[in-house]
Design brief:
Strand order of the largest sheet: 4-3-5-2-1-6-10-11-9
Shape: globular
Number of strands: 11
Number of helices: 9
CATH architecture: 3-Layer(aba) Sandwich
CATH topology: Carbamate kinase
Order of helices and strands: EHHEHHEEHEHEEEEHHEHE
Length: about 240
């Protein structure tokens, strides 16, 4: 087995991936597949933290566009991430992986409250830590939560698992001929308005020189290969545009 290139990693999983082909909720086969991928990484002694989205259940920004108050809609979206976190925790623990869910919104019966030092201690003990509830504040996405938590725990890289192979110049679903970037500076994402992560998350990563790798999580073995240092997906760094 090849050695891991990264010692401590933050994996960002979108809620939409969990929905699978059904388009909403959690598709059990997808959850099991992600559980298997994570289990392979845990065997490599990698310290793994996860931020999970909630778009498969409720998307705050979409609800606010239809007239719901944005703050209320965002809090509902945060609750959706907790549902997904508990589902993923269950899948991992059935594989014998020690897992802790930490929520930015206090919910003591279901999850620990987020405490940075406790999260780091869990990682040092090789427990997988799932960060739920976003940042705990409205108007911030789970992408921003991923960037924030990655910096707080001292992660070496953010891995964003998506349904496509990397970052494209246009949506590859509607534009099959769109070119995929192998490497990209953060400034180009902002200047070209590429829909990868929101601008707050991108700026946080850029200002703190935290690299981002966007890859296809649905492809079996990709997560392990990325952590081993193989060139998969799109690598985004703070290099000048």
């Amino acid at each position: 087995m090849s050695a891991a290139r990264y010692r401590r990693v933050l994996l960002k999983i979108s809620g939409e991936i969990l929905a699978g082909d059904q388009g909403y909720g959690v598709q059990p086969s997808v959850l099991e597949s992600i559980g298997d991928e994570i289990a392979e990484v845990v065997k490599m002694e990698v310290e793994l933290a996860i931020v999970i989205g909630g778009g498969n259940i409720f998307r705050g920004i979409a609800a606010s566009a239809t007239g719901m108050e944005r703050a209320s809609a965002d809090y509902m979206g945060m609750l959706a991430t907790i549902l997904n976190a508990l589902a993923l925790q269950n899948a991992l623990e059935r594989r014998g992986i020690l897992t802790r869910v930490q929520s930015a919104i206090e919910m003591r019966q279901l999850a620990e409250g987020y405490i940075r030092r406790r999260a780091i201690r869990h990682l040092e003990k090789k427990r997988v830590v799932i960060f739920a509830g976003g940042t705990g504040n409205p108007y911030f996405s789970t992408d921003t939560a991923a960037a924030l938590r990655a910096m707080e725990i001292g992660a070496q890289v953010i891995l964003k698992g998506t349904k496509v192979d990397g970052i494209f110049e246009a949506d590859p679903v509607t534009h099959p001929q769109a070119k995929m970037f192998d490497e990209l500076p953060f400034l180009s994402i902002i200047n070209q308005n590429l829909k990868v992560m929101d601008s707050t998350a991108i700026t946080l990563c850029m200002d703190n020189n935290l690299p981002l790798i966007v890859f296809n999580l649905k492809e079996k073995g990709n997560l392990k290969r990325v952590i081993q240092g193989e060139k998969i997906g799109t690598v985004v760094t703070a290099a000048k545009a």
